[in-house]
Amino acid sequence: MRATVMYEAGDVRIENVPDATIIEPTDAVVRVTRACICGSDLWPYKTMEPSDNGRVMGHEAIGVVEAVGADVRNIKRGDLVVMPFAFSDGTCVFCHERLQTSCVHGGFFGTVDVPGAQAEAVRVPQADGTLVVLPVGEDDALMPSLLTLSDVMGTGHHAAVSANVGPGEIAAVVGDGAVGLCGVIAAKRLGAKQIILLGRHPDRIALAREFGATDVVSKRGEEAVERVRELTDGYGVHAVLECVGLEQSELTAIEIARPGGAVGRVGVPQDETMPASQPAFYNNISVSGGPAPVRAYIEELLPDILEGRIEPGRVFDRVIGLNDVPDGYRAMNDREAIKVMVTP
Ligand SMILES: [Zn+2]
């Protein structure tokens, strides 16, 4: 089968790789009908050390189940399923606590050990715990929005939940990538009355406003902090969704939170240490978040997509075939595209 293999920074190829097959009795094999490129795929695209075997990329997909292992009970051949970016057994202590990204039998797609979904097919470990059957046809018009349940909508929602967004509150979203845009949707969905987007790209800002952003701050650093204070009677915001992961964005997130506020982090931190420890301490700011347990959120978000209350699929502004995936990486890295959907 054909798949996307990354060999080192900037080197993405479409190659023939061994077919996805059942290895463990808890596996399923899914024929991928929709996949996408993630902002987090751009980190290895920028920094990956050369590798002889490469890494089959991709952790977001919808597809049709082609085969299941002997121990799979809830998923059957022919089901249309959405695949969260992490697999999980659904039965361990952390899965019961709805933190499937810490599943004791879990892991992540698109790693050295588990080939990813920017491919014609993907092996899904722990199929019963991981996959969610979708009640639509494989070419349903809602497919782009349903695909965001794999990652970006669930991740934006996790940022909002971790930041304790509540009705009538003021939220800020740091970052205007696909996750930040979904964070705007999530903050609005949870009842925020004012949503300030910190972002700089006109196309993304326009979409954020349609999703519910009430204010936009395009400055950076201290100027951004000043502007957010001006917009909030000098106090700062209740809830900050940090959707970037760079030192500057983490610092800004803590500095724009009001005393007693919270920062929900979903941008993968690029540094070991967290900035602004003292301001966070003196202002009693909670800092929470991490890899989003998107599996926990699918049941909650799915009806809003099926019934048209949210349209996170609008973050996709380019659709390509598998052969064009290397150019899709380039386009996202060059900020030509917000998020690229792949139809293998
Ligand atoms: Zn588990």
The general outline is: globular
Mean pLDDT: 97
Let me know the largest β-sheet: 7 strands, mixed
Which hetero ligands occur in this complex? Answer: zinc ion
Task: Explain this structure.
With 344 residues, this protein is α/β, with parallel strands linked by helices. The chain is built from twelve helices and 18 strands. A hairpin with a 2-residue loop joins strand 1 and strand 2 (11-16). Helix 5 (152-162) packs across helix 6 (178-189) and helix 6 runs parallel beside helix 7. It binds zinc ion. Zinc ion binds at residues 88-89, 91-92, 94-95, 103-106.
Topology summary:
Layout: E1 2-8, E2 11-16, E3 28-36, H1 42-47, E4 55-56, E5 61-68, E6 80-83, E7 86-87, H2 93-96, E8 107-108, E9 121-124, H3 127-130, E10 132-133, H4 143-147, H5 152-162, E11 170-174, H6 178-189, E12 194-198, H7 202-211, E13 215-217, H8 221-231, E14 237-242, H9 247-256, E15 257-265, H10 277-282, E16 286-289, H11 294-306, E17 316-321, H12 325-333, E18 339-343
Parallel strand pairs: 11-12, 11-14, 12-13, 14-15, 15-16, 17-18
Antiparallel strand pairs: 1-2, 1-4, 3-5, 3-9, 3-18, 5-6, 6-10, 7-8
Summarize this entry quickly.
By secondary structure, the chain is of the alpha/beta class. Helices cover 29% and strands 26% of the residues. The protein has helices spanning 42-47, 93-96, 127-130, 143-147, 152-162, 178-189, 202-211, 221-231, 247-256, 277-282, 294-306, 325-333; strands spanning 2-8, 11-16, 28-36, 55-56, 61-68, 80-83, 86-87, 107-108, 121-124, 132-133, 170-174, 194-198, 215-217, 237-242, 257-265, 286-289, 316-321, 339-343.
